[in-house]
TrEMBL record, chains A, B:
Belongs to the histidinol dehydrogenase family. Substrate binds at residues 247, 269, 272, 338, 371, 425, 430. The gene is hisD. NAD(+) binds at residues 140, 201, 224. One of its GO terms (biological process) is L-histidine biosynthetic process. GO terms for cellular component: cytosol. Keywords: Amino-acid biosynthesis, Histidine biosynthesis, Metal-binding, NAD, Oxidoreductase, Zinc. Catalyzes the sequential NAD-dependent oxidations of L-histidinol to L-histidinaldehyde and then to L-histidine. This is Histidinol dehydrogenase.
Length: 439, 439
């Protein structure tokens, strides 16, 4: 007989509800001093010794012994072969996913202003911004059990759509085991070069460059605690994406959904990781009971039931709320990575949401569709950072330069203003530089 | 008789030129362990004790002793009085600067896609992104000698243009000394609340919130080493802007400019800070000589000549290049914060520039006009980070949420794809969640 698990229940009218909720969301910071110290050492070795250090660490950590880093590069031909060798259904699924992710990000490039612009003032002064793509981007792809081809698509395609000239992927292949789906995804996404290296040594190689591996301008993609620590350390030398926390889903229900669907959506976060968090907000207590029943009924059939059980027991919440309006208020406080709105007329509630990484609207929009093939990016802000940050997008692979061309006439009016303000700040060379341009 | 200073000279044809150049750009990382340890302590105290800790540190560091944090708030009326009390020319200059910065950033809001968007596919599936402004932003403004009203405008105006509901400014006032220009700028920029606190304690108060000071979602603005260390530490709890390094200017000349203007533009970076860096690239050796002569002639008249002399002696470079095309190539390697193009037909060279924080085009566009009143932001990427980052802008005060609404028909086609890919990644709950929506 399967073990029944009991998910923690809260009611928004409980005394101290907000404090309990917020403390349930937070995890202790994973500032592991030992990992950080090891990473500092690895980065220093890679910076000092380049290829030789990369070879040493790859031998040590991935048990992969080769004579030169060039042997760790996978050719475009090998990537294509991996793709050609896929089963027909996998090939089609990857094709559809890549095509849809590309189409969405092409629209995003248009809509989010990834273009240069300029305007001219009456005196001839021209002001604007120039947009350029990053020259070279590194994508970290985890190896081993958490090797996700979908992540290759989600990280590489926006970079290529943005116009990045060279996308360099690193993926560890412990004991030389390569994942054909990951290589096929790299080929489909248009990744330019692939090296089978990983860990902090791969981050260091991308940040500083070696004889064989070119230095990049930004490093994106998920990784373990060593990779995360290395990304934090090289930030400034290169750009990085957000350091992601455990995955989260928040489901808003009015009680009109199929409880099995809701239970499975909660599972689909929980199965990622013991620390993943699944939360349901619902004004209908009897529906919450039905979801709890579905959880117990469906759990035994899940291959990853151990992970799901630990995650749901330790971190999930089923919260009874006053009404859907209150559910939206609480959702804005949580600022979840994934937010599902499973109600009748879900748009009215979507309009109330200000803070979420992605909003999945209506009962047919399972979060897993967004993970793979709806089109929007699955790299999303976690740990309440949706209050101030955005999904990974084309905008992360471009940058802007201000363009300022002051006319001779403009230099007269602006020069007087700048001179006054510069003197007010005690910066007389600034003032003189403006004054020298006055007639 | 004034001391002649000799600025370091390089030629792009020197052996090892690129290595010499790149090593001249870098500064040792200012990772001061003692500062970081002090900051960790201050942040922990503020998080644990709120207002009481803020009062203690303000008494200790700013010699300002009050009974409650409410006494450290400056009223809107006091801000307005500071503005009304300015000399007429200062008031006008600040008005013009605020109006121009606002106009530029309003155009930026339109051009850089700070709007929600959505498209509908043939099967009724709707995809897009929702844009929302951040709820609450904190602006750090340094006190004392480096109190810059222009920085108040440059940080607060883009936030207000973006639609941030509440902008909270902190500015230390050591011994209670308030800078009327800074307060006037806060009033003009529409800052909602001002607290006279500073240092790591102010960063902590904004990040965690206290009884009196509300927690914000992002903290921007320059500060000393303690403020920078505190911002690094609270990143993740709140968003932060870039940690700025010393200011830099790179001037590209073809030899057709007034050498005095060029010398003064080099001074205007050098006067900020002994570590600031000024570089000239020019194919005309005789023009470089004339700039060197202007430097020696103009330096004695500069009130901040000590700072300028140290900066130019230790960090400036006058580089002779083969031609302007090579100058542009080198400029792209340097990726300077400020890039001036002082040539005939400067637009042709501006087109060659891919990496720079701001590009100042033509002899009349002194960098100091951009610092104060041209309109574009003066908060710019330093230390070669213009390779991957942008000027502070309206886009830093908004964030995006993906919007995904899959139709019943869409769930059939996408569900099959997601199921295949999820099984390929070993995530069966993801697959089941998609499969359950299949008819």
């Amino acid at each position: 007989m399967p073990t029944a698990i009991h998910v923690k229940r809260l009611n928004s009218s409980d005394p101290g509800f907000t404090e309990i909720l917020l403390s349930s969301l937070s995890l202790p910071m994973a500032d592991d001093e030992a990992i950080d110290a090891a990473v500092v050492q690895i980065l220093a070795q890679v910076q000092a010794h380049g290829d030789a250090a990369v070879l040493d660490y790859t031998k040590q950590f991935d048990r992969l012994s080769v004579a030169s880093v060039t042997e760790l590069e996978i050719s475009q031909q090998a990537l294509q072969q991996a793709y050609e060798g896929l089963a027909a259904d996998q090939k089609t699924a990857l094709d559809v996913a890549a095509q849809r992710v590309r189409a969405y990000h092409e629209q995003q490039k248009i809509e989010t202003g990834c273009h240069s612009w300029e305007y001219t003032e009456p005196d001839g002064t021209r002001l604007g911004q120039k947009v350029t793509a990053l020259d070279r981007v590194g994508i970290y792809v985890p190896g081993g059990k958490a090797a996700y081809p979908s992540s290759v698509l989600m990280n590489a395609i926006p970079a290529k759509v943005a116009g990045v000239s060279e996308v360099i992927m690193v993926v560890p292949t412990p004991d030389g085991t390569r994942n054909p789906l990951v290589l096929a995804a790299a080929w489909l996404a248009g990744v330019d070069r692939v090296f089978t290296i990983g860990g902090a040594q791969a981050v260091g190689a991308l940040a500083y460059g070696t004889k064989t591996i070119p230095a990049v301008d930004k490093i994106v993609g998920p990784g373990n605690a060593y990779v995360a620590a290395a990304k934090r350390r090289v930030f400034g030398t290169v750009g990085i994406d957000m350091i992601a926390g455990p995955s989260e889903i928040l489901v808003l229900c009015d009680g009109s959904s199929n409880p099995d669907w809701i239970a499975m959506d909660l599972f689909s976060q929980a199965e990622h990781d013991e620390l993943a968090q699944s939360i349901l907000l619902c004004p209908d207590a009897s529906f919450i009971e039905r979801v709890q029943a579905s959880i117990n009924q469906l759990l035994p059939e899940m291959p990853r039931k151990k992970v799901i059980e630990t995650s749901l027991t330790n971190r999930a919440l089923l919260i009874e709320v006053k009404d859907m309006a209150e559910a939206c208020d609480i959702a804005n406080q949580i600022a979840a990575e994934h937010l599902e709105i499973c109600t009748t007329d879900p748009r009215q509630w979507a309009e109330q949401i200000r803070h979420a990484g992605a909003i999945f609207i209506g009962n047919y929009t399972s979060e897993s569709l967004g993970d793979y093939c709806a089109g929007p990016n699955h790299v999303l802000p976690t740990a309440r950072t949706a209050r101030f940050s955005s999904p990974l997008g084309v905008y992360d692979f471009i940058k802007r330069s201000s363009m300022i061309e002051v006319s001779e006439a403009g230099a007269q009016t602006l020069g007087a203003v700048a001179s006054t303000l510069a003197h007010g700040e005690g910066l007389q060379a600034h003032a003189r530089a403006a004054e020298m341009r006055l007639k």
